[in-house]
Amino acid sequence: MIAPGTKASLKVFHDGKFKDVPVTIVEFEADKTAAADVVDTETASRSLLGLKVSDLTDAQKAELRVKGGVKVDAADGPAARAGLREGDVLLKANNVEITGAKQFAALVAKFDRSKPINVLARRGDQATFVLIKPAAAPTPPASSK
To answer: Of 18, 73, 90, 139, which one has the greatest count of Cβ atoms within 10 A?
Structure first.
């Protein structure tokens, strides 16, 4: 909880001795590997709900005081009609806690496309339940004889 740019000293144990090591606190950018995982898993949630999501970083979880959830990177179609937008944080889907993007995509893939999905969404300090009516499954083309 030290501000970036602050100089500090760390006491480390190395080669059988304690040493004071001067450091400057810096802020790391969000982990890029989370976005790579989303590419593999977002198809179901994107096509069914119109959502593109990514994992929350540890810093975001700490700031929001949550253990899990996913951040909405884009919302269109059913999700946008339900009122979700970029930056929202999804915490539960059909009363199941969301732990990450892969788990969320797996949940969505199992949902009944004919029923609305109940999502607990957080925007700022407010959390609310939102019902998303999934996009209809594509119908196969009729065969002609």
So the answer is: 90
SS3 80: helix
CA nearest to 79, candidates 44, 55, 29: 44
Nearest CA-CA partner of 64 in 2, 128, 124, 142 = 124
- Dig out the tokens for 93 from the structure: 């889907």
Sign of the CA dihedral with 96 first, then 97, 103, and 109 last: positive
pLDDT, averaged across the chain: 81
* Total Cβ atoms within 10 A of residue 48: 22
SS3 assignment, position 82 = coil
Q: What is the pLDDT of residues 118-144, one digit of tens each?
A: 999 999 889 999 999 887 655 445 555
- Quote the pTM value: 0.64
Number of H-type helices and E-type strands within the chain = 5, 8
DSSP bridge pairs for 43: none
What structural domains and CATH numbers belong to the chain?
Answer: 52-132 (2.30.42.10)
CB contact at 8 A, 105 and 120: no
Residues 6 or more apart whose CB falls under 8 angstroms from that of 9 comprise 20, 21, 22, 23
Q: Are 52 and 46 in contact (CB under 8 A)?
A: yes
